[in-house]
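User: I'm writing a tutorial on reading structure tokens. Could you give me a worked example: one chain, its sequence, then its tokens, then a sentence or two explaining what the tokens reveal?
Assistant: Sure. Here is the example chain.
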Amino acid sequence: MRKATSRRQTRRGVENRAWRAVSNPGVRLLQLSAAAVLLLTAATPATHGASVSARGSEVSAQAQTESKSQNPARPPAPAPQPQRQQNQTPAPNSTDNVKVLDEIVAKVNNEIITLTDFNREMQSVRTQLAEEIRDPQALNQEMEKRKGMLLRLMIENKMMIQKAEELGITANMDVEVAATLEEIRKENGIPSMEVFEQLLQQRGSSIDQHRATIKQRMIVQTLIQQFVYSKLTLLTPEIEAYYKQNIHRFSEPAEVELAEILFLIEGKDKAQVRLRAEEVLARLKGGAVFEDEAKKSSEGPTASRGGNIGAFKKGSMAPGLEAVVFDMKAGDISNVIETDYGFQIVKLMNKKENQVKPLTEVRPIIMNELYQKKAEPEVKEFLEDLRSQSYIYVAPDYKKDYDLSEQTQAAK
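And here are its predicted structure tokens:
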């Protein structure tokens, strides 16, 4: 019963994040330690009323080659020499036509990570980063930084999948994965799985790949839940103290809704423009309707709408204008205000004072953050323990990328 409950918690966390992988099916690696990245994929236990949100660290389905053999003791095997899978032509006694198809990058117990697996994940990371880093040279440099982190993450994920298999966590999970996919489809208004498949194919993915990614998330989250989060405690005084220390984060800044009458000075006599603005202000003080004067006199883009320029939060406006409008009351009209581009008269249409969100509203957010903070060293210890029980081989050509010191540098 506890296992089923844990899976339902995990499934909900996956549902909340999985659709992002449709538009970006690749891996997003944050500049964090491997333990922190894995931590972000973990689900907070529902007994504490929160779920940890993840924004990265997906490893695609092809990166996982799940072993069906049972090897609970995992005795150290002799280190293999770098291996290459070969395909020879049928010509007898010929070695001239050997074609290298793949090579082993790493081995985790009885499973391997091939160069094809590694390159596929690297390309997924590159595709995602290319949306943020436009300069090719800068993109290449960033990829080099993340290469070792990716290899380490692939190895750690494989260790956890294997551990989950030993414990029977993966049993019957396909039913939950299928249900999750179906819910994602419905929630996003996709009419059928066939259309879903087409959308994924347009982005270089597939239903099978997406299904395997979701399953891997569920497995990893369930494992972390069982070995880490289930052992953590969080007290009410801790939550209240965190709330008080970060009260600014849980506050909505004051907001004003404005309308303006704008007078531009470009190519005009500044004094004459100011005089015209003062004349309009005089009419407004005499009872003229602001919206009518805006339609008739304003040179701003919202003149036809009565000058309404929308709502602005405190801290988002020019200092001079902000100092004026936040001292006004709803319905007030300012004097003529000089700006870099001319003059304006503003009317305060509506005003919302600074509002602090109650603790009851932000409690789940605070719990998530505190659990993540508490869990980080525990996840690290859990991974180190798994690593000590596992046989891990990294091919010489890739060992430098797996070096722990370089991992630390990449995470900074």
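What the tokens reveal: The CA atoms of residues 375 and 384 lie 14 Å apart. The longest strand covers residues 342-352.
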